[in-house]
Amino acid sequence: MRVNIKYLSLIVFALPILTVIISYIISVKLNLISFCIPNIDGCTSISRAGRYEPVKYFFKPFMFLFGVLLFIYWRENFLKLKLFKENKLLLITFIIGIISVIFLFLYILFLGESNIYRFFRKIGIYIYIFFTIIAQLLLAIQYFKLRNTANKFLNKKFIKYKLIFSVFLISFSIIVLPILLIKIEHFPEIKNIISWNYFLCIQLYYLITFFCWKPISLVVLPTRE
Question: Which of 2, 125, 133, 161 sits at a 20 to 30 Å CA gap from 203?
Answer without folding.
Answer: 2
